[in-house]
Every structure is written in structure tokens, then in C-alpha cells.
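Progress note, project year one: complex with NAP.
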Amino acid sequence: MVEFRNLTPPEDGQEIKEEGGKLKIPDNPIIPFIEGDGTGPDIWRASQRVLDAGIDKAYGGKKAIAWFQVMAGETSFNETGEWLPEDTLKAIEHYKVAIKGPLTTPVGGGIRSLNVTLRQKLDLYACVRPVRYFQGVPSPVRSPEQMDMIIFRENTEDVYAGIEWSEGSNEVKKVIKFLNKKMGTNIREDSGVGVKPISITGTKRLVRKAIQYALDKNRRSVTLVHKGNIMKFTEGAFRDWGYELAREEFADVTVLENDLWDKYDGKMPAGKVLINDRIADSMFQQVLTRTNEYDILATPNLNGDYLSDACAAQVGGLGMAPGANIGDVVGLFEATHGTAPKYAGQDKVNPGSLLLSGVMMLEYMGWKEAADKVVNAFGVTIKSKVVTYDLARLMSGAREVKASEFASAIIENL
Ligand code: NAP
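Model obtained:
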């Protein structure tokens, strides 16, 4: 039994268990949720209603989520004095599947970012961001429907590891002295310095997840995106370790790009996943110019951050981009945008990002029928031009509705 200081889990729910690395989902799983700050409560309420209705429609009352509210962010700080209470981390870890709205990042005061803290404390090492097009959404490109990619971004290493020292600090002086004196570098005295660690462990567990996903979902390829031509021992190593992992653990179900021509005359054998690699800057062109040639991208932290927003822009922006942070077992699903504070409490912004993150969560739980129903109804609603302000301002002939009305329209279309 897990014990909380200030929380009481719902009595009508059951715990998700894990057996041999696989989740066992009961019919009434307890799922912790964080509403989020700013516009979070608006989009959470809208998303929750749609998810519940989708589940009900799919399973006729046989399955339902026992939602369990947990606290984080500004709302939590105002009520409890803590930005990220221990209870919240404990609940997510214990119940294994959770969902969150956007959180205000506290300025100053020790905590860097609640999202980064959650990812690091729970070791949620894969940030998974699917990017796909919904018909009717305004897009800056000519064939947005070609975009159907899933980005697996390493979540714990790279320049995001939080190892950096500010210019002029005692620490940075020591680091610069050590590097210049002992390692033969020539760093200017007035520099800030950051460290970019990329490990075999971090790379292989991320690439393993990406390849396993490709196999599970019958996808065509996994592309390792790196800047290895310049950063050879970090990004270049990411590429090399990615290929090594594919050879070591997936040799019979993958084809490496070099072998595609040497052994298969350029034709992919059926049922196998192609593993290739691209340099990050070229990849930014490729996602625009040869969109339909790419499928799953596996990248170090910084490339993945840039690339997922760039890809999202091609299909209508961040209001529509879902995300998940996944570890060996625990999955935390989240809207990828921020709290959009100027619209807080106006029931205005697009709940799409959080709702589609909920859809990813249903898929993670194996509740595919409900996930499909929600995605389908979401697509139908947008196609009928009943949309929130962000899409309405870009569409001709659209009917602008509030977030809650948008949710009601989706529910009607289920
Ligand atoms: P933001 O909250 O993402 O908002 C920037 C703009 O994006 C909004 O003004 C709005 O554009 C548009 N937008 C965001 N969400 C939308 C939605 N659901 N529907 C339609 N449009 C949406 O970024 P920010 O203002 O830079 O950050 C605000 C706070 O959020 C900060 O405290 C930041 O640290 C935090 N943050 C949290 C997360 C997270 O929890 N995952 C991520 C990023 C930022 P228009 O004004 O053009 O309508």
C-alpha cells in the first residue's frame, strides 16, 4: 500500500500493475492527473470529458478511468507552499500512468523547470511526440497530410542535463582553469560553460524504445538524427551506438541503410524496419521537402526539441501537438505547449494538444478502441470547421467556439 501525506486516492479505482515490464491495466484504473496552471484547468476539463465519453462509447460502461487529482505548479505552490509535492511524484510512480496540463515554470527560487524535474526524478527518458495532420487545419506547407512522424527525443542528457556554470562564477573559473591548463583547450576567461553528456546507456535505451515502437506499430523506418559531423564524440557517438543497438538486439527485424543497397538492391524486405541516419540540419530540410520519406525519428535532446516544434508547425502548430514522457514503465502524458496565461479562465484555448496526449495515453494502456474513436471524432469536428480561436483565425468559414463547446462538439461526433 502506498501512503500519501495529503492525498486520498479514489476508492472506486484499481491499481495498474506491472509484470515483466508490461502493464496490466484493470477495467477501472486509477490515473493521476495534474490540471496545470493558467489555461490548464480549461483544457483539462474539456479533454477529460471527451476522454471519458470516448471510453464509455467504446466499452459501453465496462471500462472507466478513476481519475485522481494530484498537485503541481503554481496552483500547488499557492495552496501547499510546494511547487512539486513529494505526494505527486509518489502517485505518478506508483500508479504508473498519468497525465498533466501545462505548468508555470517558477522564475528563480531553485527549481529550474517542473517538467525537467518530473522527467529526471521519474527517469522518463523518452519524450515521444507524434506529429500528424488533421484535414482542414490551416498549414504553411502545400502537402501537410504527408506529415506522419513520431519523434523519440532523449530526455535526460545532452545540453539539457543542467550541468552549466555562469560566467564569472567561482565554479566556471575552476572549470576553465582545469580545461585550459590540463586539457589543452583555449576557452576565453569571460565564458559561461555547459557540459553535453551523451552516454551509451542513454542512447541505447532511447533507440531501443524507438525501434520497438516501430515494430509494434508496423512503421517503416527509424532515423537517427544527429550533428555527428561536428560533435563526433557525443552526437556522432549517438549515431554509432544507435546502429550498434540495432545490430545487437534487432538484427533479424531491421535493415541498416548501407545494407539496403549492398544486400537488398535498394528494396526493403517486407516486415522489416529500415534504420538510417541524417545530420540534424539536413533533417530540417528533409521534413519539409521529402516529408513522406520519414517515419520515426530518434534524436538527442536538443535536436528533438527543435525538430518536434518545427514538425508541429507544418501541421498547425503547438495547440495540436501531443506528447508523452516515458520511462521503462511509467508514462506521463502532457500538452506540449505552455500555460498561455493571458487566456487563463476564459475557456478559450484549444484543448487539442492535451486531448491528443490523452489519446496517446489510451493507446499506451492498450485501450485502442477508445483512442481511435476520440481521434476520429476530433478529426470530424475540425473538418466541420467547428474550432477554437487559434484555428478559427486562420480558416475561412469557421465557427469559433469555446474550449468546452469544442469538447461538446467532439463528443457529439463520437
Ligand atoms: P505558451 O504558454 O505555450 O503560449 C504561447 C502562445 O502559444 C499563446 O499566447 C498562444 O498564442 C499559443 N498557445 C499556447 N497554447 C495554446 C493552445 N492550447 N491553444 C491555442 N494557442 C495556444 O508559452 P509562454 O507564454 O512562453 O509560456 C507560458 C508559461 O508556460 C511559462 O511559465 C512557461 O515556463 C510555461 N511552459 C510550460 C510548458 C509545460 O508545462 N510543458 C511548456 C512551455 C512553457 P496566441 O497568443 O498567438 O494566441
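The pocket of NAP is lined by residues 43, 102-105, 115, 318-319, 334, 337-341, 349-350, 353, 390 (CB under 6 Å).
The chain has a mean pLDDT of 94.
No further modelling is planned for this target in the current period.
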